[in-house]
# Entry
Amino acid sequence: MLFSRIAIFSPGLLGGSLVRAIHRQSAGSVEVRVWGRREEPLQCLRDEGAATFASTNAAEVADGADLIVLAMTIGAMRATLEPVLAAGALAPGAIVTDVGSVKGSVVAALEAPVTAAGGYFVGSHPMAGSEQKGLDHATADLFTDAACLITPTTTSDPGAVDRVEDFWRWLGCRTARMSPERHDETVSRISHLPHVVASLVVEAALRESPDAAIYAGGGFRDTTRVASGPPEMWTEILLENRDAVLARLEQFHALTGEMLAFLRDRREEDLHRFLSGAKERRDHIYGRR
Amino acid sequence: MLFSRIAIFSPGLLGGSLVRAIHRQSAGSVEVRVWGRREEPLQCLRDEGAATFASTNAAEVADGADLIVLAMTIGAMRATLEPVLAAGALAPGAIVTDVGSVKGSVVAALEAPVTAAGGYFVGSHPMAGSEQKGLDHATADLFTDAACLITPTTTSDPGAVDRVEDFWRWLGCRTARMSPERHDETVSRISHLPHVVASLVVEAALRESPDAAIYAGGGFRDTTRVASGPPEMWTEILLENRDAVLARLEQFHALTGEMLAFLRDRREEDLHRFLSGAKERRDHIYGRR
# Structure
Protein backbone atom coordinates (compact mmCIF):
# COMPACT_ATOMS: atom_id res chain seq x y z
CA MET A 1 0.00 0.00 0.00
CA LEU A 2 1.10 3.55 -0.83
CA PHE A 3 0.23 4.95 2.59
CA SER A 4 1.10 3.51 5.96
CA ARG A 5 -0.92 5.75 8.28
CA ILE A 6 -4.26 7.11 7.08
CA ALA A 7 -6.45 9.52 9.05
CA ILE A 8 -10.17 9.58 8.31
CA PHE A 9 -11.99 12.63 9.52
CA SER A 10 -15.58 11.86 10.55
CA PRO A 11 -16.99 8.31 10.53
CA GLY A 12 -20.29 8.85 8.69
CA LEU A 13 -21.52 6.82 5.73
CA LEU A 14 -18.50 7.59 3.55
CA GLY A 15 -15.85 8.02 6.26
CA GLY A 16 -16.96 4.91 8.14
CA SER A 17 -16.99 2.93 4.90
CA LEU A 18 -13.45 4.17 4.21
CA VAL A 19 -12.24 3.00 7.64
CA ARG A 20 -13.72 -0.44 7.08
CA ALA A 21 -12.56 -0.69 3.45
CA ILE A 22 -8.95 0.31 4.23
CA HIS A 23 -8.80 -2.07 7.19
CA ARG A 24 -10.09 -4.95 5.09
CA GLN A 25 -8.13 -4.15 1.94
CA SER A 26 -4.81 -3.81 3.79
CA ALA A 27 -5.56 -6.81 6.02
CA GLY A 28 -4.81 -4.57 9.00
CA SER A 29 -1.35 -3.54 7.76
CA VAL A 30 -2.29 0.13 7.30
CA GLU A 31 -2.77 2.14 10.48
CA VAL A 32 -6.21 3.74 10.37
CA ARG A 33 -6.80 6.77 12.60
CA VAL A 34 -10.25 8.29 13.01
CA TRP A 35 -11.45 11.67 14.13
CA GLY A 36 -15.07 12.31 15.06
CA ARG A 37 -17.07 14.80 17.11
CA ARG A 38 -18.89 12.11 19.08
CA GLU A 39 -17.27 9.30 21.07
CA GLU A 40 -19.86 6.61 20.25
CA PRO A 41 -18.96 5.86 16.60
CA LEU A 42 -15.26 6.07 17.48
CA GLN A 43 -15.72 3.43 20.18
CA CYS A 44 -17.64 1.28 17.70
CA LEU A 45 -14.73 1.38 15.20
CA ARG A 46 -12.19 0.69 17.95
CA ASP A 47 -14.21 -2.27 19.19
CA GLU A 48 -14.49 -3.88 15.77
CA GLY A 49 -10.74 -3.41 15.28
CA ALA A 50 -11.04 -1.30 12.11
CA ALA A 51 -9.58 1.83 13.76
CA THR A 52 -6.07 1.66 15.21
CA PHE A 53 -6.57 4.98 16.98
CA ALA A 54 -9.68 7.11 17.33
CA SER A 55 -10.12 10.43 19.09
CA THR A 56 -12.12 13.66 19.19
CA ASN A 57 -8.83 15.58 19.05
CA ALA A 58 -8.07 16.41 15.41
CA ALA A 59 -4.36 17.22 15.85
CA GLU A 60 -3.75 13.94 17.66
CA VAL A 61 -5.49 11.95 14.93
CA ALA A 62 -3.54 13.71 12.15
CA ASP A 63 -0.23 13.06 13.89
CA GLY A 64 2.15 11.28 11.52
CA ALA A 65 -0.53 10.49 8.95
CA ASP A 66 0.68 10.40 5.34
CA LEU A 67 -2.90 10.65 4.06
CA ILE A 68 -5.81 12.56 5.57
CA VAL A 69 -9.29 12.11 4.09
CA LEU A 70 -11.92 14.73 4.95
CA ALA A 71 -15.32 13.04 4.93
CA MET A 72 -17.62 15.51 6.64
CA THR A 73 -20.03 18.02 5.09
CA ILE A 74 -18.33 20.49 2.77
CA GLY A 75 -18.86 23.56 4.92
CA ALA A 76 -17.21 21.93 7.95
CA MET A 77 -14.00 20.82 6.20
CA ARG A 78 -11.99 23.99 6.58
CA ALA A 79 -12.92 24.44 10.25
CA THR A 80 -12.12 20.80 11.03
CA LEU A 81 -8.69 20.95 9.42
CA GLU A 82 -7.85 24.31 11.05
CA PRO A 83 -6.68 22.98 14.46
CA VAL A 84 -4.48 20.41 12.68
CA LEU A 85 -2.73 23.11 10.67
CA ALA A 86 -2.59 25.50 13.63
CA ALA A 87 -0.94 22.83 15.81
CA GLY A 88 1.62 22.11 13.09
CA ALA A 89 0.36 18.52 13.21
CA LEU A 90 0.37 17.98 9.44
CA ALA A 91 3.30 15.68 8.62
CA PRO A 92 5.72 17.10 6.00
CA GLY A 93 4.61 15.97 2.54
CA ALA A 94 1.31 14.56 3.84
CA ILE A 95 -1.50 14.39 1.33
CA VAL A 96 -4.96 15.71 2.18
CA THR A 97 -7.98 14.76 0.11
CA ASP A 98 -11.76 14.82 0.65
CA VAL A 99 -14.96 13.15 -0.52
CA GLY A 100 -17.10 16.26 -1.03
CA SER A 101 -19.81 16.41 -3.70
CA VAL A 102 -18.73 19.88 -4.86
CA LYS A 103 -15.12 20.54 -5.77
CA GLY A 104 -14.65 24.16 -6.89
CA SER A 105 -15.31 25.72 -3.50
CA VAL A 106 -13.64 22.90 -1.54
CA VAL A 107 -10.42 22.98 -3.55
CA ALA A 108 -10.35 26.78 -3.40
CA ALA A 109 -10.71 26.68 0.39
CA LEU A 110 -8.19 23.94 1.16
CA GLU A 111 -5.44 23.88 -1.46
CA ALA A 112 -3.63 27.01 -0.30
CA PRO A 113 -3.60 26.39 3.48
CA VAL A 114 -2.57 22.74 3.09
CA THR A 115 0.23 23.71 0.68
CA ALA A 116 1.36 26.49 3.03
CA ALA A 117 1.56 23.91 5.83
CA GLY A 118 3.93 21.74 3.77
CA GLY A 119 1.35 19.22 2.52
CA TYR A 120 -0.47 18.52 -0.74
CA PHE A 121 -4.19 18.91 -1.33
CA VAL A 122 -5.96 16.94 -4.10
CA GLY A 123 -9.77 16.86 -4.30
CA SER A 124 -11.66 13.59 -4.77
CA HIS A 125 -15.30 12.66 -5.16
CA PRO A 126 -16.20 8.98 -4.91
CA MET A 127 -19.72 8.64 -6.42
CA ALA A 128 -20.72 6.16 -3.77
CA GLY A 129 -23.26 7.81 -1.49
CA SER A 130 -26.88 6.81 -1.15
CA GLU A 131 -29.96 8.18 0.56
CA GLN A 132 -28.68 6.64 3.79
CA LYS A 133 -26.38 8.25 6.31
CA GLY A 134 -24.24 7.38 9.30
CA LEU A 135 -21.87 4.66 10.40
CA ASP A 136 -24.75 2.15 10.70
CA HIS A 137 -24.89 1.99 6.89
CA ALA A 138 -21.13 2.17 6.30
CA THR A 139 -19.70 -0.84 4.50
CA ALA A 140 -16.29 -1.91 3.22
CA ASP A 141 -17.92 -2.63 -0.17
CA LEU A 142 -19.16 0.92 -0.76
CA PHE A 143 -16.37 1.84 -3.18
CA THR A 144 -16.24 -1.34 -5.22
CA ASP A 145 -16.82 -0.41 -8.89
CA ALA A 146 -17.91 3.13 -7.96
CA ALA A 147 -16.66 6.01 -10.09
CA CYS A 148 -14.26 8.35 -8.29
CA LEU A 149 -13.51 11.75 -9.79
CA ILE A 150 -10.09 13.24 -8.96
CA THR A 151 -9.85 17.00 -9.44
CA PRO A 152 -6.29 18.31 -9.79
CA THR A 153 -5.63 22.00 -10.46
CA THR A 154 -2.88 23.57 -12.59
CA THR A 155 -0.75 23.86 -9.46
CA SER A 156 -1.32 20.32 -8.11
CA ASP A 157 1.74 18.17 -7.46
CA PRO A 158 1.67 15.39 -10.12
CA GLY A 159 3.07 12.80 -7.72
CA ALA A 160 0.40 13.59 -5.12
CA VAL A 161 -2.35 13.36 -7.75
CA ASP A 162 -1.05 9.95 -8.84
CA ARG A 163 -0.98 8.69 -5.26
CA VAL A 164 -4.55 9.87 -4.57
CA GLU A 165 -5.77 8.20 -7.75
CA ASP A 166 -3.93 4.99 -6.86
CA PHE A 167 -5.52 5.07 -3.41
CA TRP A 168 -9.07 5.08 -4.82
CA ARG A 169 -8.17 2.41 -7.38
CA TRP A 170 -6.77 0.27 -4.60
CA LEU A 171 -10.21 0.53 -2.95
CA GLY A 172 -11.89 -0.69 -6.14
CA CYS A 173 -12.98 2.60 -7.74
CA ARG A 174 -12.99 3.43 -11.44
CA THR A 175 -11.20 6.78 -11.47
CA ALA A 176 -11.22 9.77 -13.83
CA ARG A 177 -9.46 13.12 -13.64
CA MET A 178 -11.00 16.47 -14.42
CA SER A 179 -10.72 20.08 -13.25
CA PRO A 180 -12.83 21.14 -10.24
CA GLU A 181 -14.95 23.29 -12.59
CA ARG A 182 -15.63 20.45 -15.01
CA HIS A 183 -16.41 18.19 -12.04
CA ASP A 184 -19.01 20.60 -10.72
CA GLU A 185 -20.65 20.91 -14.13
CA THR A 186 -20.68 17.10 -14.56
CA VAL A 187 -22.20 16.32 -11.16
CA SER A 188 -24.80 19.06 -11.62
CA ARG A 189 -26.02 16.89 -14.52
CA ILE A 190 -25.78 13.39 -13.06
CA SER A 191 -26.30 13.95 -9.36
CA HIS A 192 -27.55 17.38 -8.29
CA LEU A 193 -30.26 17.86 -10.92
CA PRO A 194 -31.63 14.31 -10.36
CA HIS A 195 -31.70 14.99 -6.63
CA VAL A 196 -33.70 18.21 -6.92
CA VAL A 197 -36.06 16.58 -9.40
CA ALA A 198 -36.68 13.54 -7.18
CA SER A 199 -37.81 15.91 -4.43
CA LEU A 200 -39.99 17.84 -6.88
CA VAL A 201 -41.67 14.60 -8.02
CA VAL A 202 -42.47 13.63 -4.44
CA GLU A 203 -44.01 17.04 -3.76
CA ALA A 204 -45.99 17.21 -7.02
CA ALA A 205 -47.26 13.65 -6.55
CA LEU A 206 -47.94 13.46 -2.83
CA ARG A 207 -48.49 16.91 -1.31
CA GLU A 208 -52.24 16.80 -1.98
CA SER A 209 -52.50 13.04 -1.77
CA PRO A 210 -49.99 11.66 0.77
CA ASP A 211 -51.17 8.06 0.52
CA ALA A 212 -51.34 7.73 -3.28
CA ALA A 213 -47.94 6.04 -3.36
CA ILE A 214 -49.01 3.03 -1.30
CA TYR A 215 -50.16 1.64 -4.65
CA ALA A 216 -46.97 2.54 -6.47
CA GLY A 217 -44.77 0.06 -8.30
CA GLY A 218 -40.99 0.11 -8.49
CA GLY A 219 -40.99 3.13 -10.82
CA PHE A 220 -42.06 5.66 -8.20
CA ARG A 221 -39.85 4.10 -5.54
CA ASP A 222 -36.72 4.28 -7.70
CA THR A 223 -37.44 7.63 -9.34
CA THR A 224 -37.75 9.28 -5.93
CA ARG A 225 -35.25 7.25 -3.87
CA VAL A 226 -32.64 9.97 -3.45
CA ALA A 227 -35.29 12.37 -2.13
CA SER A 228 -34.95 10.46 1.16
CA GLY A 229 -31.37 11.73 1.52
CA PRO A 230 -30.35 14.11 4.35
CA PRO A 231 -31.87 17.58 3.68
CA GLU A 232 -29.10 19.52 5.51
CA MET A 233 -26.37 17.92 3.41
CA TRP A 234 -28.27 18.47 0.17
CA THR A 235 -29.18 22.07 0.93
CA GLU A 236 -25.48 22.74 1.35
CA ILE A 237 -24.48 20.85 -1.81
CA LEU A 238 -27.05 22.63 -3.99
CA LEU A 239 -26.02 26.07 -2.71
CA GLU A 240 -22.29 25.32 -2.99
CA ASN A 241 -22.80 24.29 -6.62
CA ARG A 242 -25.49 26.86 -7.21
CA ASP A 243 -24.43 28.23 -10.60
CA ALA A 244 -24.18 24.85 -12.30
CA VAL A 245 -27.36 23.54 -10.64
CA LEU A 246 -29.25 26.67 -11.67
CA ALA A 247 -28.13 26.26 -15.28
CA ARG A 248 -29.30 22.63 -15.32
CA LEU A 249 -32.59 23.34 -13.57
CA GLU A 250 -33.34 26.23 -15.95
CA GLN A 251 -32.80 23.93 -18.91
CA PHE A 252 -34.92 21.28 -17.23
CA HIS A 253 -37.68 23.81 -16.58
CA ALA A 254 -37.66 24.82 -20.26
CA LEU A 255 -37.84 21.18 -21.39
CA THR A 256 -40.76 20.63 -19.01
CA GLY A 257 -42.49 23.56 -20.73
CA GLU A 258 -41.94 21.88 -24.12
CA MET A 259 -43.41 18.65 -22.77
CA LEU A 260 -46.46 20.52 -21.46
CA ALA A 261 -47.03 21.91 -24.96
CA PHE A 262 -46.76 18.40 -26.48
CA LEU A 263 -49.49 17.19 -24.12
CA ARG A 264 -51.74 20.27 -24.37
CA ASP A 265 -51.72 20.14 -28.17
CA ARG A 266 -51.70 16.32 -28.37
CA ARG A 267 -48.49 16.41 -30.40
CA GLU A 268 -48.11 12.64 -30.51
CA GLU A 269 -45.09 12.63 -32.84
CA ASP A 270 -43.13 15.16 -30.79
CA LEU A 271 -43.96 13.32 -27.59
CA HIS A 272 -42.84 10.04 -29.09
CA ARG A 273 -39.65 11.59 -30.44
CA PHE A 274 -38.85 13.06 -27.01
CA LEU A 275 -39.39 9.76 -25.15
CA SER A 276 -37.38 7.87 -27.79
CA GLY A 277 -34.49 10.32 -27.53
CA ALA A 278 -34.39 9.97 -23.76
CA LYS A 279 -34.51 6.17 -24.00
CA GLU A 280 -31.66 6.15 -26.54
CA ARG A 281 -29.49 8.45 -24.49
CA ARG A 282 -30.05 6.42 -21.33
CA ASP A 283 -29.55 3.09 -23.08
CA HIS A 284 -26.26 4.47 -24.47
CA ILE A 285 -25.06 4.48 -20.84
CA TYR A 286 -26.79 1.45 -19.34
CA GLY A 287 -27.24 -0.85 -22.32
CA ARG A 288 -30.22 -1.55 -24.50
CA ARG A 289 -33.02 -3.70 -23.09
CA MET B 1 -59.21 -21.75 -8.30
CA LEU B 2 -62.15 -19.57 -9.29
CA PHE B 3 -61.60 -20.01 -13.00
CA SER B 4 -60.95 -23.21 -14.90
CA ARG B 5 -60.10 -21.87 -18.36
CA ILE B 6 -58.27 -18.58 -18.67
CA ALA B 7 -57.43 -16.87 -21.96
CA ILE B 8 -54.51 -14.43 -22.01
CA PHE B 9 -54.43 -12.09 -24.96
CA SER B 10 -50.88 -11.23 -26.01
CA PRO B 11 -47.81 -12.78 -24.36
CA GLY B 12 -45.69 -9.67 -23.69
CA LEU B 13 -44.08 -8.79 -20.37
CA LEU B 14 -47.37 -8.75 -18.44
CA GLY B 15 -49.32 -11.33 -20.46
CA GLY B 16 -46.42 -13.77 -20.57
CA SER B 17 -45.88 -13.34 -16.84
CA LEU B 18 -49.58 -14.06 -16.30
CA VAL B 19 -49.39 -17.28 -18.32
CA ARG B 20 -46.40 -18.47 -16.29
CA ALA B 21 -47.84 -17.32 -12.95
CA ILE B 22 -51.23 -19.00 -13.50
CA HIS B 23 -49.57 -22.20 -14.66
CA ARG B 24 -47.31 -22.30 -11.62
CA GLN B 25 -49.92 -21.16 -9.08
CA SER B 26 -52.51 -23.71 -10.25
CA ALA B 27 -49.91 -26.45 -10.63
CA GLY B 28 -51.23 -26.95 -14.16
CA SER B 29 -54.84 -27.48 -13.10
CA VAL B 30 -56.10 -24.31 -14.82
CA GLU B 31 -56.24 -24.43 -18.60
CA VAL B 32 -54.29 -21.47 -19.96
CA ARG B 33 -55.03 -20.35 -23.51
CA VAL B 34 -52.93 -17.73 -25.25
CA TRP B 35 -53.57 -15.46 -28.19
CA GLY B 36 -50.77 -13.58 -29.94
CA ARG B 37 -50.12 -11.95 -33.28
CA ARG B 38 -46.83 -13.78 -33.80
CA GLU B 39 -46.29 -17.54 -33.69
CA GLU B 40 -42.87 -17.50 -32.02
CA PRO B 41 -43.81 -16.55 -28.44
CA LEU B 42 -46.84 -18.86 -28.65
CA GLN B 43 -44.58 -21.77 -29.56
CA CYS B 44 -42.28 -20.84 -26.71
CA LEU B 45 -45.15 -21.00 -24.18
CA ARG B 46 -46.42 -24.28 -25.66
CA ASP B 47 -42.94 -25.79 -25.46
CA GLU B 48 -42.43 -24.90 -21.83
CA GLY B 49 -45.86 -26.34 -21.01
CA ALA B 50 -47.29 -23.13 -19.55
CA ALA B 51 -49.89 -22.71 -22.33
CA THR B 52 -52.44 -25.46 -22.84
CA PHE B 53 -53.52 -23.97 -26.14
CA ALA B 54 -52.03 -21.09 -28.13
CA SER B 55 -53.16 -19.61 -31.42
CA THR B 56 -53.22 -16.46 -33.54
CA ASN B 57 -57.01 -16.90 -33.88
CA ALA B 58 -58.69 -14.82 -31.16
CA ALA B 59 -62.10 -16.50 -31.30
CA GLU B 60 -60.54 -19.96 -30.97
CA VAL B 61 -58.51 -18.90 -27.96
CA ALA B 62 -61.54 -17.32 -26.25
CA ASP B 63 -63.64 -20.43 -26.77
CA GLY B 64 -65.07 -21.63 -23.46
CA ALA B 65 -62.84 -19.34 -21.36
CA ASP B 66 -64.42 -18.15 -18.11
CA LEU B 67 -61.81 -15.38 -17.80
CA ILE B 68 -60.17 -13.36 -20.56
CA VAL B 69 -57.32 -11.00 -19.71
CA LEU B 70 -56.39 -8.33 -22.25
CA ALA B 71 -52.67 -7.60 -21.92
CA MET B 72 -51.83 -5.64 -25.04
CA THR B 73 -51.45 -1.88 -25.50
CA ILE B 74 -54.58 0.06 -24.59
CA GLY B 75 -55.44 1.21 -28.08
CA ALA B 76 -55.40 -2.35 -29.45
CA MET B 77 -57.74 -3.87 -26.86
CA ARG B 78 -61.05 -3.06 -28.50
CA ALA B 79 -59.89 -4.22 -31.94
CA THR B 80 -58.47 -7.44 -30.54
CA LEU B 81 -61.65 -8.34 -28.70
CA GLU B 82 -63.88 -7.44 -31.67
CA PRO B 83 -63.54 -10.75 -33.61
CA VAL B 84 -64.28 -12.68 -30.39
CA LEU B 85 -67.52 -10.78 -29.84
CA ALA B 86 -68.41 -10.86 -33.55
CA ALA B 87 -67.97 -14.64 -33.67
CA GLY B 88 -70.17 -15.08 -30.58
CA ALA B 89 -67.16 -16.81 -28.99
CA LEU B 90 -67.53 -15.16 -25.58
CA ALA B 91 -68.85 -17.82 -23.18
CA PRO B 92 -72.07 -16.79 -21.36
CA GLY B 93 -71.13 -15.11 -18.06
CA ALA B 94 -67.43 -14.97 -18.95
CA ILE B 95 -65.44 -12.23 -17.27
CA VAL B 96 -63.16 -9.96 -19.27
CA THR B 97 -60.50 -7.85 -17.58
CA ASP B 98 -57.33 -6.10 -18.70
CA VAL B 99 -53.99 -4.84 -17.40
CA GLY B 100 -53.97 -1.38 -18.99
CA SER B 101 -52.26 1.58 -17.31
CA VAL B 102 -55.21 3.89 -17.99
CA LYS B 103 -58.72 2.88 -16.95
CA GLY B 104 -61.25 5.61 -17.87
CA SER B 105 -60.95 5.17 -21.62
CA VAL B 106 -60.49 1.39 -21.46
CA VAL B 107 -63.53 0.78 -19.28
CA ALA B 108 -65.60 3.17 -21.43
CA ALA B 109 -64.60 1.28 -24.59
CA LEU B 110 -65.07 -2.28 -23.32
CA GLU B 111 -67.77 -2.41 -20.64
CA ALA B 112 -70.75 -1.93 -22.95
CA PRO B 113 -69.80 -4.35 -25.76
CA VAL B 114 -68.75 -7.11 -23.35
CA THR B 115 -72.00 -6.69 -21.37
CA ALA B 116 -74.03 -6.72 -24.60
CA ALA B 117 -72.33 -10.01 -25.54
CA GLY B 118 -73.46 -11.60 -22.26
CA GLY B 119 -70.20 -11.22 -20.31
CA TYR B 120 -68.88 -8.96 -17.57
CA PHE B 121 -66.11 -6.40 -17.92
CA VAL B 122 -64.06 -5.28 -14.88
CA GLY B 123 -60.92 -3.19 -15.33
CA SER B 124 -57.68 -4.07 -13.52
CA HIS B 125 -54.22 -2.53 -13.33
CA PRO B 126 -51.46 -4.60 -11.76
CA MET B 127 -48.66 -2.13 -10.93
CA ALA B 128 -46.04 -4.62 -12.00
CA GLY B 129 -44.45 -3.37 -15.20
CA SER B 130 -40.86 -2.28 -15.57
CA GLU B 131 -38.74 -0.62 -18.24
CA GLN B 132 -38.42 -4.02 -19.90
CA LYS B 133 -40.74 -5.53 -22.45
CA GLY B 134 -41.55 -8.84 -24.09
CA LEU B 135 -41.83 -12.49 -23.15
CA ASP B 136 -38.07 -12.76 -22.57
CA HIS B 137 -38.50 -10.78 -19.35
CA ALA B 138 -41.81 -12.36 -18.31
CA THR B 139 -41.68 -14.14 -14.98
CA ALA B 140 -44.14 -16.00 -12.74
CA ASP B 141 -42.99 -13.82 -9.83
CA LEU B 142 -43.97 -10.50 -11.44
CA PHE B 143 -47.19 -10.12 -9.43
CA THR B 144 -45.94 -11.20 -6.03
CA ASP B 145 -46.61 -8.33 -3.58
CA ALA B 146 -47.43 -5.92 -6.42
CA ALA B 147 -50.38 -3.56 -5.96
CA CYS B 148 -53.31 -4.25 -8.28
CA LEU B 149 -56.01 -1.62 -8.70
CA ILE B 150 -59.49 -2.93 -9.58
CA THR B 151 -61.79 -0.33 -11.14
CA PRO B 152 -65.49 -1.20 -10.92
CA THR B 153 -68.14 1.22 -12.20
CA THR B 154 -71.60 1.93 -10.80
CA THR B 155 -73.00 -0.70 -13.18
CA SER B 156 -70.41 -3.43 -12.54
CA ASP B 157 -71.67 -6.83 -11.41
CA PRO B 158 -70.58 -7.21 -7.75
CA GLY B 159 -69.91 -10.94 -8.13
CA ALA B 160 -67.69 -10.35 -11.17
CA VAL B 161 -65.76 -7.64 -9.33
CA ASP B 162 -65.18 -10.00 -6.39
CA ARG B 163 -63.94 -12.74 -8.69
CA VAL B 164 -61.51 -10.44 -10.51
CA GLU B 165 -60.15 -9.18 -7.19
CA ASP B 166 -59.80 -12.76 -5.91
CA PHE B 167 -57.94 -13.68 -9.09
CA TRP B 168 -55.24 -11.02 -8.53
CA ARG B 169 -55.00 -11.89 -4.84
CA TRP B 170 -54.53 -15.53 -5.77
CA LEU B 171 -51.54 -14.40 -7.88
CA GLY B 172 -50.04 -12.61 -4.86
CA CYS B 173 -51.19 -9.03 -5.48
CA ARG B 174 -52.26 -6.50 -2.83
CA THR B 175 -55.54 -5.25 -4.28
CA ALA B 176 -57.52 -2.04 -3.90
CA ARG B 177 -60.75 -0.87 -5.54
CA MET B 178 -61.42 2.57 -6.92
CA SER B 179 -63.37 4.18 -9.75
CA PRO B 180 -61.69 4.42 -13.17
CA GLU B 181 -61.50 8.21 -12.72
CA ARG B 182 -59.84 8.00 -9.33
CA HIS B 183 -57.47 5.36 -10.73
CA ASP B 184 -56.37 7.63 -13.55
CA GLU B 185 -55.77 10.53 -11.16
CA THR B 186 -53.79 8.27 -8.80
CA VAL B 187 -51.52 6.77 -11.47
CA SER B 188 -50.91 10.21 -12.97
CA ARG B 189 -49.23 10.96 -9.61
CA ILE B 190 -47.31 7.77 -8.94
CA SER B 191 -46.54 6.44 -12.41
CA HIS B 192 -47.17 8.81 -15.33
CA LEU B 193 -45.63 11.97 -13.84
CA PRO B 194 -42.50 10.08 -12.67
CA HIS B 195 -42.18 8.58 -16.14
CA VAL B 196 -42.30 11.93 -17.93
CA VAL B 197 -39.89 13.44 -15.43
CA ALA B 198 -37.38 10.59 -15.77
CA SER B 199 -37.24 11.29 -19.50
CA LEU B 200 -36.88 15.04 -18.86
CA VAL B 201 -33.95 14.42 -16.48
CA VAL B 202 -32.16 12.31 -19.09
CA GLU B 203 -32.60 15.02 -21.71
CA ALA B 204 -31.60 17.91 -19.44
CA ALA B 205 -28.57 15.99 -18.16
CA LEU B 206 -27.26 14.27 -21.27
CA ARG B 207 -28.40 16.03 -24.45
CA GLU B 208 -25.35 18.31 -24.49
CA SER B 209 -23.09 15.87 -22.71
CA PRO B 210 -23.99 12.28 -23.66
CA ASP B 211 -21.13 10.65 -21.75
CA ALA B 212 -21.47 12.55 -18.46
CA ALA B 213 -23.39 9.65 -16.91
CA ILE B 214 -20.54 7.16 -17.21
CA TYR B 215 -19.40 8.63 -13.88
CA ALA B 216 -22.84 8.47 -12.30
CA GLY B 217 -23.64 6.62 -9.11
CA GLY B 218 -26.84 4.75 -8.31
CA GLY B 219 -28.87 7.96 -7.99
CA PHE B 220 -28.88 8.82 -11.68
CA ARG B 221 -29.42 5.20 -12.69
CA ASP B 222 -32.47 4.78 -10.45
CA THR B 223 -33.95 8.24 -10.98
CA THR B 224 -34.00 7.69 -14.74
CA ARG B 225 -34.63 3.92 -14.94
CA VAL B 226 -38.18 4.09 -16.29
CA ALA B 227 -37.04 6.40 -19.12
CA SER B 228 -35.74 3.21 -20.78
CA GLY B 229 -39.31 1.94 -21.15
CA PRO B 230 -40.94 1.47 -24.58
CA PRO B 231 -41.67 4.92 -26.11
CA GLU B 232 -44.68 3.75 -28.18
CA MET B 233 -46.44 2.34 -25.13
CA TRP B 234 -45.72 5.43 -23.05
CA THR B 235 -46.76 7.89 -25.74
CA GLU B 236 -50.10 6.13 -25.81
CA ILE B 237 -50.47 6.02 -22.01
CA LEU B 238 -49.67 9.71 -21.59
CA LEU B 239 -52.14 10.75 -24.28
CA GLU B 240 -54.87 8.40 -23.02
CA ASN B 241 -54.51 9.91 -19.55
CA ARG B 242 -53.77 13.38 -20.89
CA ASP B 243 -55.96 15.50 -18.61
CA ALA B 244 -54.64 14.04 -15.37
CA VAL B 245 -51.03 14.00 -16.58
CA LEU B 246 -51.31 17.63 -17.71
CA ALA B 247 -52.64 18.67 -14.31
CA ARG B 248 -49.73 16.92 -12.54
CA LEU B 249 -47.09 18.23 -14.93
CA GLU B 250 -48.42 21.79 -14.62
CA GLN B 251 -48.15 21.55 -10.86
CA PHE B 252 -44.67 20.06 -11.19
CA HIS B 253 -43.64 22.86 -13.55
CA ALA B 254 -44.83 25.45 -11.03
CA LEU B 255 -42.93 23.76 -8.19
CA THR B 256 -39.80 23.70 -10.37
CA GLY B 257 -40.23 27.44 -10.80
CA GLU B 258 -40.37 27.84 -7.00
CA MET B 259 -37.20 25.80 -6.64
CA LEU B 260 -35.46 27.97 -9.25
CA ALA B 261 -36.32 31.04 -7.17
CA PHE B 262 -34.94 29.38 -4.02
CA LEU B 263 -31.63 28.79 -5.79
CA ARG B 264 -31.45 32.15 -7.59
CA ASP B 265 -32.04 34.06 -4.37
CA ARG B 266 -30.05 31.65 -2.18
CA ARG B 267 -33.10 31.07 0.01
CA GLU B 268 -31.43 28.44 2.16
CA GLU B 269 -34.30 28.05 4.62
CA ASP B 270 -36.93 27.59 1.91
CA LEU B 271 -34.71 25.11 0.08
CA HIS B 272 -34.14 23.13 3.26
CA ARG B 273 -37.85 23.17 4.08
CA PHE B 274 -38.69 21.90 0.60
CA LEU B 275 -36.17 19.03 0.72
CA SER B 276 -37.27 18.11 4.26
CA GLY B 277 -40.93 18.04 3.24
CA ALA B 278 -40.17 15.76 0.30
CA LYS B 279 -38.10 13.44 2.48
CA GLU B 280 -40.86 13.26 5.09
CA ARG B 281 -43.55 12.52 2.54
CA ARG B 282 -41.45 9.82 0.89
CA ASP B 283 -40.38 8.27 4.20
CA HIS B 284 -44.08 8.16 5.18
CA ILE B 285 -44.46 5.61 2.38
CA TYR B 286 -41.15 3.75 2.43
CA GLY B 287 -40.06 4.07 6.05
CA ARG B 288 -37.67 6.39 7.76
CA ARG B 289 -33.94 5.81 7.25
